[in-house]
Amino acid sequence: MMSLKQFCAASRVALATLIFCVAGSSITAQQLDEATVIKGVGAAVKARLDNVLGYTVTEHYAVYRSGDETHPAAEMTVKTVYREETGKTYTPISQSGSAILRSQVLGAILENERLLNLPGNREAAWITSANYHMQLAPGGHQMIDRRDCVVLTLVPKHSSPHLFTGTLWVDSKDFSIVQLQGVTSKSPSFITGPTQVMRQYALVSGYAQATHARAESDSFLFGKTIVKIDYSDYQVQLRPTS
What we know:
Layout: H1 4-30, H2 34-51, E1 52-65, E2 74-83, E3 87-97, H3 99-116, E4 132-144, E5 147-156, E6 164-171, E7 177-184, E8 196-204, E9 207-219, E10 223-238
């Protein structure tokens, strides 16, 4: 039987080993260099595009005006179907509130997403080094939803309403996107200014999918407008492995 003295000594060794392993993991994460992270982000994006053949998701849109983020002026729930070969299609499930906001704001968002996800168009919005200048942000790391994230700054290489100047958080282990926050590099239309955007992501069937988004814009037609989007009930179809 182990004596008390031996037990204490063994405990100290085990504790020291644990501290060393945790510290070692932290050091490894902190030592990720910029080139490795940027390459990893591109590889994660490409893996998702190569392996996700399609998905269905329920999307709930809510429009808020005049600083009131409690009572939506318009709402819409749609079933979205994405197919690699054709892009996105939308089927309304329910809608309420201002018909003008649903048509001019939510309708415009859905049409923009439909066009963006057509084959040949979607490449222009990928978060990769082909579309962005990326740099490690000061501080380098931040915990989001219990995930250790590497923080990057994003500057678009060309002007587009689908690209953002802002900040990107990616998982330090697999470089999948966790969060994006920024301002569109180009106004989506002549009636609005640049849009402030935030998107949150989670792993679904092993690949990053949007779970929540928030967009804030200002226009002479509608004034300050905030749109919140929640995504749920994902069903993902993956490419069969050989």
